[in-house]
Specification:
By secondary structure, this protein is of the alpha/beta class. It has 4 helices and 40 strands. It has 3 domains: about 90 residues, MurE/MurF, N-terminal domain (Udp-n-acetylmuramoylalanyl-d-glutamate--2,6- Diaminopimelate Ligase, Chain: A, domain 1, 3-Layer(aba) Sandwich), CATH 3.40.1390; about 210 residues, UDP N-Acetylglucosamine Acyltransferase, domain 1 (3 Solenoid), CATH 2.160.10.10; about 30 residues.
């Protein structure tokens, strides 16, 4: 697919500066630009690449000031970073979409497959499964009995959706994601640990994206919920009976223990850990490796550290932590001097 600068500007409500007939067919980072590619400049520290890039078109902010010769055609937009995201989405939506059921796929006779679906070789679709129209199921993906998958979803290779689980519309599950494995429920006995049956399900609402090798466990009873618009990175663990609020995002290796309720529009950095039965308020932001062990009641806080504290306090504490050896030596020296002073005063008294 090839697009001209004037076509792109019309799509993005931008202004062309240069050759409106310049064409592109691919994307490239501005520092790796090639003829026929479109790049973007949203950070001033990369501005020097604009005068060197070989890209044919570059998206820049409307207030960007050019300070040298530029060979590329510029398209000025309100926000180059946001705009390139929209352009990538348009480009991706125009790719040819696979449809049809491969004869090497296994589909139970009781399963219901919607129109324009793609079921790849070696995919497994169990009894009474329902799959909405336009959904793609790639090789070795497994959808067990009674599960439901909505419309226009993508299940990449080796995704597993366990029995009875529900996936909404326009969801993306990346390779190795496991939806509905048993929650980690065991009761200690004198002989060891007795397994507590996990008879609930997982409910994933619309427009959710789940990264590679991420696991969302089924509930003991009822459902584990991943609400509308949630984005989970690779290797995230969502335990049984958790509820993740709408539009919350989690980076890699976040772990959420059982029965925790997370609000909407929260953001968690890599390796954040959240203890069981906690409640986390809306718009909570937690930096990497933050440990949340109790309820976060006030919305909109930014947290760091383990146990979690206000981020500003954390950074102030970090400065003190680096000085602890010197501070400890100073305190010990002062203690010795105080003891000597006490001894001297006692002798004089």
């Amino acid at each position: 697919m090839e697009f001209s600068a004037e076509m792109i500007a019309g799509l993005l409500e931008g202004v062309v500066e240069g050759d409106p007939k310049a064409t592109v067919h691919d994307f490239a980072k501005i520092e790796e630009g090639r003829p026929g590619c479109i790049s973007f400049l949203a950070n001033d520290k990369y501005a020097h690449y604009l005068y060197e890039t070989k890209s044919s078109i570059v998206l820049v902010n409307k207030d960007f000031k050019v300070e040298g010769d530029v060979s590329a055609t510029l398209i000025r937009v309100d926000d180059a970073r946001e705009t390139v995201g929209k352009l990538l989405a348009v480009y991706d939506s125009m790719k040819p979409k696979k449809t049809g059921i491969d004869p090497l796929a296994f589909i139970d006779p009781d399963a219901e497959i919607g129109e324009d679906c793609y079921i790849a070789p070696f995919a497994y679709i169990g009894a009474k499964v329902k799959i909405g129209k336009g959904t793609a199921v790639y090789p070795h993906a497994v959808i067990y009995d009674g599960a439901c998958v909505g419309e226009n979803c993508t299940l990449y290779p080796h995704v597993s959706v366990y029995h009875g689980c529900k996936i909404g519309n326009r969801c993306i599950l990346h390779s190795g994601a496991v939806i509905g494995a048993d929650g980690f429920g065991f009761a200690p006995t004198e002989e060891g640990y007795e397994k507590i049956p996990q008879i609930g399900i997982v409910t994933i609402e619309d427009d959710v994206e789940i990264g590679a090798n991420t696991c969302v466990d089924r509930s003991t009873m009822g459902s584990t919920y991943v609400r509308k618009g949630v984005k989970l990175d690779n290797m995230v663990q969502i335990a049984h009976n958790v509820e993740v609020g709408p539009n919350t995002v989690m980076s890699a290796q976040v772990g959420v223990a059982g029965s925790t309720k997370i609000g909407q529009w929260c953001m968690f950095g890599g390796q954040v850990g959240i203890g069981g039965h906690a409640t986390v308020a809306d718009r909570t932001m937690a930096g990497g490796q933050t440990g949340i062990s109790s309820n976060i009641k006030k919305p909109g806080q930014t947290l760091m550290g383990a146990p979690a504290i206000d981020a500003k306090n954390f950074w102030r504490s970090s400065v003190v932590f680096k000085q602890l050896p010197e501070l400890s030596a100073t305190v010990n020296q002062l203690k010795r001097e105080i003891e000597e002073l006490k001894k001297t005063l006692a002798e004089k008294g």
